Inverse folding.
């Protein structure tokens, strides 16, 4: 769970005491909002591997904030597609009252409507659990043929428990979630003794191993982090480190604003003749030959837009099984 106060304290330590040139993080969109003033006033580059909130696209970041995961306006299209492909037409939406939750809904509703579905309920709940039962009642009363839940395991698990209590759990009504609730331990937030409590829930999330990503990465990461069950955002984290290093190499400087100036360029090249490369070593070798590079990362073709974020994304569509784990059913490409 995000701890914005702790993040702010750590950001102060990194920027003012350790004098770092770049930060990989923050994990949550709200946390980046909490520290962005410190990042900009300290003149430090920030690259988040997991911030997907749409409200960060045009945040006042002095050109220092970047992110490697695709933004929620793209995931909203992927989720709407999964729902409509399943034949659902009357959708109730229950979202955490946060920039992540409400921001996602702002793009999900039109995407669903474009696909011919109707949003029959749109309710928000507080992450601390206040009023969850009343909001669930509103959603259930709309008699939906499917329910979308946007939140995180700690709070979303409480919503799921209430849905089950009101006879609208995943065994009764198809439930869809997003990346915030993708976890092989989600069931523990609902009923830690019953892994099957989440069975049948479907969801979307940025692909942990995109088909257009560097082929070596999935196996290398599994070998490196043997205890990580859910590798979501691992590829994006790796790419944050690599592109900051490549931008420093390209600019010939470790000054944050010099790095920031080249971050977009190394992800897509400055010319049509830019040469593709997928490792730090191969990309640096090209830079030393004064070649223009297009880094094709572990998370795929980043191709940053003017806001310093991917212009397309590949998403997993997954389903929870009886043992509490999820399996990926398919991947879909959105954007471009």
């Amino acid at each position: 769970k995000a701890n914005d106060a702790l993040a702010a304290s750590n950001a102060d330590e990194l920027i003012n005491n350790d004098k770092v040139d770049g930060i990989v993080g923050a994990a949550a969109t709200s946390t980046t909002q909490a520290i962005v003033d410190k990042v900009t006033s300290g003149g430090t580059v920030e690259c988040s591997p997991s911030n997907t909130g749409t409200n960060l696209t045009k945040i006042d970041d002095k050109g220092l904030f970047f992110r490697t995961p695709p933004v929620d306006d793209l995931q909203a299209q992927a989720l709407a597609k999964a729902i409509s492909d399943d034949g659902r037409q009357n959708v109730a939406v229950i979202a955490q009252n946060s920039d992540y939750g409400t921001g996602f809904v702002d793009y999900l509703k039109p995407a669903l409507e474009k696909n011919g579905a109707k949003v029959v309920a749109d309710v928000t709940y507080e992450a601390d659990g206040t009023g969850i039962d009343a909001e669930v009642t509103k959603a259930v009363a709309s008699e939906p043929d499917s329910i979308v839940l946007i939140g995180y395991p700690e709070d979303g698990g409480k919503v799921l428990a209430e849905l089950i209590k009101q006879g609208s759990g995943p065994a009764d009504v198809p439930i869809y979630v997003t990346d915030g609730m993708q976890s092989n331990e989600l069931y523990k937030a609902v009923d830690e003794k019953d892994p099957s409590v989440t069975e049948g829930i479907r969801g979307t999330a940025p692909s942990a191993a995109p088909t257009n990503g560097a082929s070596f990465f999935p196996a290398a990461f599994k070998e490196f982090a043997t205890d990580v069950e859910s590798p979501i955002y691992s590829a994006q984290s790796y790419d944050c480190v690599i592109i900051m290093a490549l931008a420093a190499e390209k600019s010939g400087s470790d000054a944050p604003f010099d790095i920031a100036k080249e971050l977009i360029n190394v992800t897509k090249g400055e010319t049509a003749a830019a040469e593709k490369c997928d490792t730090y070593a191969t990309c640096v070798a090209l830079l030393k030959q004064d070649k223009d590079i297009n880094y094709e990362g572990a998370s795929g073709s980043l191709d940053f837009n003017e806001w310093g974020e991917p212009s397309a994304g590949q998403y997993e569509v997954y389903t929870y099984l009886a043992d509490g784990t999820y399996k990926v059913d398919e991947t879909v490409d959105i954007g471009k």
